[in-house]
Amino acid sequence: MSIPSSPNLLGTAALSGLKVLELGQLIAGPFAAKTLADFGADVIKIETLGAGDPLRKWRLLKDGTSVWWQVQSRNKRSVALDLRQPEAQDIVRSLAAECDVVIENFRPGAMEGWGLGPDDLHQLNPGLIMLRISGYGQTGPYRDRPGFGVVAEAMGGLRHLTAEPDHVPVRVGVSIGDTLAALHGVIGILVALQHRAKTGEGQVIDVALYEAVFNCMESLLPEYSAFGAVRGPAGSALPGIAPSNAYLCKDGAYALIAGNGDSIFKRLMTVIDRTDLGADPTLADNTGRVLRVAELDAAIGLWTAAHSVDEVLAALDAASVPAGKIYTVADIAADPHYQARGMIQQVQMDDGSTLAVPGIVPKLSRTPGSHRRNAPNVGQDTLAVLREVGLTPEQIQALYERGIVEGIEK
After folding, report:
1. Whole-angstrom Cα distance, residue 380 to residue 289?
2. Above 80 in pLDDT, residue 409?
3. What order of strands is seen across the sheet that includes strand 323-325?
4. How much of the chain, in percent, has pLDDT values that exceed 70?
5. Which residues contact 281 (CB under 8 A, 6 or more apart)?
6. Do 44 and 22 touch, CB atoms closer than 8 A?
7. For the purposes of burial, counting CB atoms within 10 Å of the CB of 361, is it exposed (0-12), middle (13-18) or buried (19 or more)?
8. What is the CA radius of gyration of the chain?
């Protein structure tokens, strides 16, 4: 799917009219703002003078800018300010007075130090919704510690589980802690908007990175509370649920097979020619299968070792057994289902080239998200936004000359 760089709504934007001020940088706060922007919110991103958001220089660069930037900041406008200056803080106050949502992911206390904390901003705009994302939250004994996603993933319980038994725990290959926090923040914003629609009241949403991870840890805590069980790493298996694992195939690839449903298990055993196991009453439910998981994994592994991964997946698909292979990004880019679902979008860049970027999730039938605008250059929209908040040309010129704002012409 090819997406032009000029505005082109694919439908009525659900969040059209919602004005969002994004403060902070890198991943968690900007991802939350990106999600709102995808569905029509007008997101004004405040960047530092000069280099702007450090994400612009993270990982692989094209023409000096990270291609990641084109995903994280699409549909946003950029204003470059020196937030250490009182005049820049005044601009933020003027913007916050007219915005519905402020998103920030600085260390707790930073916003208050600039006179931009919730108490300050709610005096100007009582209906303002403020999302605050930090490593450990705005309260508690750890609030002032620096917090990055990788640390939050460990504290939230995830890192302990991501390894083969008796091996060093490994990190998930993406910044999953930041992304989970961002999505929890978006949920909080949507809930707060509902509350404001009923009462007119704004509020503060306090999201801690480690809590967002911990919220996804399923039965980890109640199992410890009830049984003293400390779940450990299990590699590719799913502890307590069987059979579900990665199985080596003849061609060296792995097939992920989830045969843990009762009827699915019987179909799987038929496919691998082990109807004796499928008919065994002690294996009729998950409780019995967990007790014999090593035996089941061995039987399935013996069958997969005799076939290529494509042969394995074809046979399992025909029997309605959930299975798949481990995708690389090359597999993703070539997959017809990704293409059919609009999950590989070709964006036209300013230099005329195209760039493949992920499509928009979730998919709404009446108000789908859209790529309306490419990620901005640093301060690309400074002049337009300053005019919108009522600054005169003379005031804007003075701010430029004093190095308080950037991205506008003299």
Report:
1. 60
2. no
3. 244-248, 254-258, 323-325
4. 97
5. none
6. yes
7. exposed
8. 25
Q: What is the pLDDT of residue 304?
A: 98
Measure the CA angle with vertex 191, ends 187 and 196; round to 5°: 145
How long is the chain? 410
Mean pLDDT of 311-328: 97
Q: What is the mean pLDDT of residues 156-184?
A: 92
Amino acid at 352: G
Strand partners, 203: 129
Question: Tokens representing 172?
Answer: 């998930």
Q: Is the pLDDT reported for residue 7 higher than 80?
A: no
Model pLDDT, residue 350: 85
Strand partners, 42: 19
Please, where in the chain does CATH 3.30.1540.10 lie?
244-332
Backbone phi, psi, residue 214, to 5°: -60, -35
Please tell me the predicted confidence (pLDDT) of residue 408.
64
Q: Where in the chain is the domain with CATH 3.40.50.10540?
A: 2-216+344-406
Is the predicted pLDDT of residue 10 greater than 80, yes or no?
no
Of 3.40.50.720, 3.30.1540.10, 3.90.1150.10, 3.40.190.10, the CATH number of 244-332 is: 3.30.1540.10
Handedness of CA 152, 157, 158, 164 (dihedral sign): positive
Question: Is there a catalytic annotation at residue 331?
Answer: no
Instruction: At 273, list the tokens.
Output: 């020619």
Tokens 């908040």 -> residue: 389
Question: Topology of 2-216+344-406 in CATH?
Answer: Rossmann fold (3.40.50)
CB 70 within 8 A of CB 347: yes
CB within 8 Å of 357: residues ≥ 6 apart: 70, 71, 74, 345, 347, 371
Query: For residues 50 and 37, what is the distance between their CA atoms, to the nearest angstrom?
Result: 24
Tell whether the torsion through CA atoms of 28, 31, 36 and 37 is positive or negative: positive
212, pLDDT greater than 60: yes
Cα–Cα distance list, 55 to 23, 25, 43, 59, 381 (Å): 14, 7, 17, 8, 18
Helix (H) or strand (E) holding 93: helix 86-98
Chain mean pLDDT for the chain: 94
How many CB atoms neighbour CB 153 within 10 A?
26
Rounded Cα distance between 42 and 36, Å, is 8
Q: Which of 100, 178, 297, 381 is catalytic?
A: 178
Single-letter amino acid, residue 328: T
Residue 160 is predicted with a pLDDT of: 93
Higher pLDDT, 164 or 282: 282
